[in-house]
Amino acid sequence: MSRQSMTDAAKALGGPPIYGLASCRVGADYLDFEIGWAEFERDTAWAETILRRAGLKRGDMALTTLTNWESPWGSTVTHALRNLGVTYLPAEVFAWDVRRVLMFLQRFPVKAVIGLGGATLNALTEAGAPVAELLSRVDVIWARPRAAVMLADHQTAVAPFVRFGPALAMGLPGERQALVNGREWDVTSTERGLVVSNIAQRATNFLEVTTGFRGTATRVDDDIVVAGEPVS
Description:
Layout: H1 3-13, E1 20-26, E2 29-35, H2 37-53, E3 61-65, H3 71-84, E4 87-91, H4 98-107, E5 112-116, H5 118-126, H6 131-136, E6 140-143, H7 145-150, E7 158-164, E8 167-170, E9 178-181, E10 185-190, E11 193-198, E12 209-210, E13 213-220, E14 223-230
Parallel strand pairs: 3-4, 3-5, 5-6, 6-7
Antiparallel strand pairs: 1-2, 7-8, 9-14, 10-11, 11-12, 13-14
């Protein structure tokens, strides 16, 4: 048995039947679901479109602050960055990884930050970092809801980044509304807030899954424009 024969045998086994498993919060409970390869590729293609519309291109650098368990949402973005030829600098979204975030912002020409959270912003401030100066060099900041509120002085660069139930919502620089892939999902406003259903075939079917947000949803071409606030 050689390394080549083991490699050939592994190839003959084929890949796993699904991309992976995920879990999203639905009210006080959690919804577990499967993600198929076909929808993962479609979700990646949509994320690539958003990144390209925001101006990212080959040779740019992006700082990502994502956790491993967010892979069902975040991996579509990192795969899209690879497809575009964008170098991404990975860090955790938690406060304890703030030194790595600060190092990346200080040492590299970061054009975009993806998944910036409130804990990271607070930790940067507590560390005495010149937050306003560092972020002024960044063209696009995809911020989570709490961080978006904290970045009032950077509104021209801020775009939403939201785990929207099983879907991902991302915006464009300077726009408070988030976009959801309208070819993949339907979003409606109900008494329970904004709910999401899949309209394309996926490994798991979703019917009016609550997202934790309340607001409006408007279909525009192939996207759904969502304006909302977290349900308290």
